[in-house]
Design goal:
This protein is α+β, with helices and mostly antiparallel strands and about 180 residues long. It has four helices and eight strands, in the order αββαβαβββββα. The chain is globular and about 55 Å long. The two termini are about 30 Å apart.
Length: about 180
C-alpha cells in the first residue's frame, strides 16, 4: 500500500535507501497527474517525530537519483512531507503501532458484505489486522493483503497521543543526522 502503480514502485525503490540512510521510513509514494505531475513522498521517523529539516534532507537526497533515473516523463514537482496526524497506514507494523486509535480501512473485495470499515485498531495477528469495527460485537480480522487504503481518523485521542509522543521524543540539534 505504499504504492499503487509500477511507476510508484520504481520511485519507492529509489527513495527507500536514501530515507534509510537518514533514519527515515517511506510511508507512501504517489505520482499525481495534472497540468504538471506532482510526486508526493510521505516519510516519517520511527518515533513519529519527523520535522521540516528531515523532509528537506530527504528531498535533497533523492533529487539526484530522480534526475539520473528519470522515472517520471516530463516535468514534475517533488513534494516531501510528513504523513500528518491522520496518517495513512501502509505497512502491517503501522496497524500495531497505532493500536487503540480509530481508523478507516478500504478493501479490494467484499468482507461481511462490505468493502469499507471504520473502528478502533485492535492490533495485528499474523498477517491480519484486527479491528473493533463500528456496529460489530466481535473483533473483525482483515487480511492485510486485502487492504487497498487505510488511514487514521483525526480524533481528540489521536491528537493527544501525537502530542505526548512528540514530547517524549529525543530532542535533535541542528546538524544531527
Amino acid at each position: 500500500m505504499k504504492t499503487k502503480t509500477p511507476q510508484d514502485i520504481r520511485i519507492l525503490n529509489l527513495a527507500e535507501p536514501v530515507a534509510a540512510e537518514l533514519g527515515l521510513e517511506i510511508v507512501r509514494v504517489r505520482v499525481l497527474s495534472g497540468k504538471r505531475a506532482r510526486l508526493q513522498i510521505m516519510a516519517d521517523r520511527p518515533d513519529n517525530a519527523i520535522d521540516v529539516e528531515d523532509c528537506a534532507r530527504l528531498s535533497r537526497g533523492i533529487s539526484g537519483a530522480l534526475e539520473t533515473e528519470d522515472p517520471i516523463s516530463g516535468e514534475f514537482d517533488l513534494e516531501v512531507s510528513s504523513p500528518g496526524i491522520d496518517r495513512p497506514l501502509t505497512t502491517l507494523p503501522h496497524f500495531a503501532r497505532w493500536e487503540g486509535n480509530e481508523a478507516k480501512i478500504e478493501l479490494d473485495r467484499l468482507a461481511d458484505g462490505r468493502k469499507r470499515f471504520r473502528g478502533i485498531l485492535a492490533g495485528v495477528e499474523g498477517e491480519n489486522v484486527l479491528l473493533d469495527a463500528d456496529g460489530e460485537e466481535d473483533t473483525t480480522l482483515i487480511p492485510f493483503d486485502w487492504i487497498t487504503d487505510a488511514k487514521l481518523v483525526l480524533t481528540d485521542a489521536l491528537i493527544e497521543a501525537n502530542l505526548k509522543a512528540r514530547a517524549e521524543a529525543p530532542a535533535t540539534t541542528e546538524g544531527d543526522e
